[in-house]
């Protein structure tokens, strides 16, 4: 595509394309409900314009306002980007300083430290140890208190169980009494389980005379 050299042909083509362009702008505004503004200058400097709004100046003002806000937003975004970069650089420097301090606390890279720096590091370590020991003591005291509370609870439960067991315990049963026979005399023969004939005598009279009667009969 190149410029038409013949002036007459160029003017005819301009008129046709201009009318087609104005028609397309009108169709775009109607079909799509878009705000369209069109400005065309002919080769001879004549102005042709189309505006779907009340006036072309209104569309131009809207365009200027939009571009101004857009440029302002871009400037703000650029400032925000610069601020983010500066913050990132500052955080990187702080992180590097913290890493160096951490290595020193671990006893590394102490060759370049002066006496004052080592003394300051020692003081910081002592403060840290004091805080850590205090926290450790606090946790141990809390654990001991919990264990004592648990012990009291267990003792209380044990006492209640004993009382309940005492309430439901049956009454004691009297032990069985076993009668023991006196020992058998040593000068007498031991009794046996065989049948033994027993002789019985009946004596009538005063007591003591049965002995004399037995002697007389003997």
TrEMBL record:
Keyword check for Nucleus: yes
Record keywords, A-Z: Coiled coil, DNA-binding, Nucleus, Transcription, Transcription regulation
Segments forming a coiled coil: 137-167
Record-linked PROSITE patterns: K_BOX, MADS_BOX_2
CDD domains membership: MADS_MEF2_like (cd00265)
Protein origin, superkingdom: Eukaryota
InterPro entries with a match to the protein in the record: MADS-box/MEF2_TF, MEF2-like_N, TF_Kbox, TF_MADSbox, TF_MADSbox_sf
A GO MF label: RNA polymerase II transcription regulatory region sequence-specific DNA binding
Domain MADS-box intervals: 1-54
Entry's localization field: Nucleus
Residue ranges annotated for the K-box domain, each copy included: 81-171
BP GO terms, sorted: positive regulation of transcription by RNA polymerase II; regulation of developmental process
Cellular compartments per GO CC: nucleus
Membrane-traversing stretches: none
Protein name, per record: MADS-box transcription factor 56-like
Native source species: Panicum miliaceum (Proso millet)
